[in-house]
Amino acid sequence: MSLAPRLDLRQSQSLVMTPQLQQAIKLLTLSNLEIEAFIGDALEANPLLEMGEIPARADAGERDEDGSGDTSETPREEREADALIAEGAAESDAPTDLSAAEMEIDRDTGDGSWGAAEGFGGEDDGFAIDSHGGTALSLSEYLHAQVGAAGRDDQEIFIARALIERLDEAGYLTETLREVADALGVTLAEAECGLALLQSLDPAGVGARDLAECLAIQAREADRYDPCMARLIDNLELVARGDVARLQKLCEVDAEEFAEMLAELRGYDPRPGLTFGEQGGSPVVPDILIAPAHDGGWRIALNEATLPRLVVNRPYLVELRDGCRDRSSRAWLKDRLEDARWLIRALDQRQKTILAVASEIVTQQEGFFRHGVSHLRPLTLRQIAEKIEMHESTVSRVTSNKFLHCPRGTFDLKYFFTSGVGGGEDGEGASAAAVKARIKALTDAEDAKAILSDDKLVTLLKAEGFDIARRTVAKYREAMGIGSSVERRRAKKIAAIG
């Protein structure tokens, strides 16, 4: 056996993902709003690309069956561009070998099958991005604006602004006043004056250090903080336990007045700062629109309002072609045009794939769209992948970061994939979401004098065809934040008083 070095030639096969394939896979995962940002970057990188307009509905029916359309009215620049794309020159000189018929796809980033579908509106309808209001003020900005107009001395304003920066998202002061005073280098009395200024701002209850103080501030703002209300707020643990008799005795009021106090207390906001967090959140913009069809089926379309269209800038392409005199310039133009073609085709394939997955989801979960969550079936990614003859990973990417809007509301596509529990007559069991919805409905409808135990819930669910164990009921109940039978009995007892 020779130990000398030598050179060998070997052939081997390997599966390599090209950068374009990797990019196409990434496009499947992006939502329509993320696609818009991606297209913005592509427009900056490729001068041959430009934004296209959504065609009017009247134009949709003017195309021939082969998609080529009537070229008699096509501008001269476009006819020259189509001829340029279709010309059969040598590979080193021609920008591309794409035919004019294929180039029709580039006109509107697709073949029009998911355009302005009937019933979804056109360019001015739907879920346009600019139809939503601008970003609302945050809690911190709202409070700082009020402090500036308070007219107090500079020291109080300085301390109040420092306290605002120490509030949590619910509006509570998370540090002790002594710690704040030491950090700012002021006395405790000065810190208390700054806190008093903060607590006088809107919304009422902001700047409190605990729940009792938050409710007390709101009671003072409503001019209801009398000694009876003060004793009620000081004994919130008894309110949580539902000890009505002891609370009424401590407050020294009759049953009617105690019910009014309890109703007043229930109307206060225990987390005043969260109102600004909710207003400042971005609304969910759906990627897919579902609407009932006249024939009893469903119309499915992509949300055109959030889906930009790409086209090839034909006049500019002709102009660049005329200016390319050397081989390197023609090669550059060829690469740019091929990149544009690939991106338009990738977006076209993305749309087809999303619609295929969404259509199959609607088919599998038609009971949900017609009757509600109680008819939601167990569904897996593999079931959808087998039906549309795609890989399971492709379906997973398509359903990521996508939202579907239907007459019942807006839902994440992942919402329709639920596990099965129990065993039904059909052998597939029931959807976990359907079981949770039924548990919530039963507990919401129960009477204060007849609270349902977990065993009773199991019995009722089995009578409706949900064969599940008691521990499963308890797990689902706790996951939804529904208390035990004892906790619900106390809550309903207090609610009955108010």
From TrEMBL:
Q: Which organism is it from?
A: Alteriqipengyuania abyssalis
- Hey, what's the signal peptide range on this chain? none
Q: What is this protein called?
A: RNA polymerase sigma-54 factor
Residue ranges for the region (Disordered) are 56-80
Classification via InterPro entries: RNA_pol_sigma_54, RNA_pol_sigma_54_core-bd, RNA_pol_sigma_54_DNA-bd, RpoN_core-bd_sf
What is the organism lineage in this UniProt record?
A: Bacteria, Pseudomonadati, Pseudomonadota, Alphaproteobacteria, Sphingomonadales
Q: Which family does it belong to?
A: Belongs to the sigma-54 factor family.
Q: Is this entry keyworded rRNA-binding?
A: no
Q: Where is the RNA polymerase sigma factor 54 core-binding domain?
A: 137-316
Instruction: Output the PANTHER family linked to this UniProt entry.
Output: RNA POLYMERASE SIGMA-54 FACTOR
Determine the domain of life of the protein's source.
Bacteria
PROSITE patterns on file: SIGMA54_1, SIGMA54_2, SIGMA54_3
Role played: Sigma factors are initiation factors that promote the attachment of RNA polymerase to specific initiation sites and are then released.
Q: Which UniProt keywords apply?
A: DNA-binding, DNA-directed RNA polymerase, Nucleotidyltransferase, Sigma factor, Transcription, Transcription regulation, Transferase
| RNA polymerase sigma factor 54 DNA-binding domain sequence ranges | 331-490
